[in-house]
Amino acid sequence: MNRKNTMRESRPRSSRRGQRQGVVVPQAGGVLALVIILITLAAVVLVGRGVQPTIVETADSLTVRAWTYRRSIAYADIDSVVLRHGLSGLGRRLNGVQTGNTYLGWFEMAPFGKVSLFVDAQREPLVQVHAKDGVVVLSAPDSASAVALALRLQGVAKVAPLQ
Question: Strand runs (DSSP E) across 5-133, as ranges?
């Protein structure tokens, strides 16, 4: 009897009737399961719909973003622009996402080393921008848009022929 009274007294009491104190903390297994479910859901969305990069051109820079990845390039830093087919020379993923034909983030690509990809590989040609701080490869919604982007960049860099 004394033991039951001690347990009741040690519990925190609510100042209001019906209100519980404390926070329910899920177990580590529950949190891990939730994280896995969210990552799987994101991958399904990426594979199912693909991720088309958003290309924003301003007076002095080109910004490409898709999902959580973003890259801005000042026009003054662009050395050349190349229209290319495929991702030949693609190596390992450094910090990025690859699901199906979608490549987002940082990857290794021969012969450039570390490159930034914003690519749906089914949408060709790809626009490859060589800038002072590295190479960015991106895809446009269709081939006409890719060629038009390369031609708009022609004012700040030389457009090379298809490789």
Answer: 54-57, 61-66, 69-74, 78-84, 90-99, 102-109, 113-120, 126-131
**Residue 103: what are its φ and ψ, rounded to 5°?**
-125, 120
**Alpha carbon distance 122, 45 (integer Å):** 17
Does the predicted model carry a pTM greater than 0.85? no
pLDDT in tens, 67-103: 888 999 999 899 899 899 989 899 999 999 888 888 9
Q: Report the domain count for the chain.
A: 1
CA–CA dist 122, 69 (Å, integer): 20
Q: At 96, which amino acid appears? A: G
Query: Is the predicted pLDDT of residue 138 greater than 80, yes or no?
Result: yes
Q: 79: domain range?
A: 52-160
> Is residue 5 in some structural domain?
no
Domain holding 64: CATH number? Answer: 2.30.29
Q: What letter would DSSP give residue 77?
A: G
Other CB atoms within a 10 A radius of the CB of residue 11 amount to: 9
